[in-house]
Write a structure and sequence with these properties.
92 residues; 1 helix; alpha+beta; 6 strands; 16% helix; flat
Length: 92
């Protein structure tokens, strides 16, 4: 786990504790909140009850990019191509 990923995880926990929206996109009950990987895929799970769409920054081996995600689980790509993703604090 990278230091950045650990910090993002800690910040996400604080944001969630404050009741602020954090990003995801599918079965929120079964999937972890925020960024996670399976054996081959990377996802971002935006857990919210208000239907908000949020901007996340996707960390890749090259220039990072931003993406707007809807509530639930969003597939980001192959796990070996994605290093992490985090909520930027903005809606879209």
């Amino acid at each position: 786990m990278t230091l950045r990923r650990a910090l993002v995880g800690a910040l996400s926990s604080i944001v969630l504790g404050l009741g602020l929206p954090v990003a995801t996109a599918s079965s929120a009950a079964a999937d972890p909140r925020g960024f996670y990987e399976t054996g081959s895929d990377a996802y971002y799970n935006h857990c919210t009850g208000d239907g908000s769409h949020v901007v996340i920054e996707v960390e890749v081996w090259g220039p990072n990019h931003e993406r707007c995600v809807v509530p639930g689980r969003t597939w980001l790509g192959a796990a070996d191509k994605i290093d992490g993703a985090f909520y930027t604090g903005r809606t879209c």
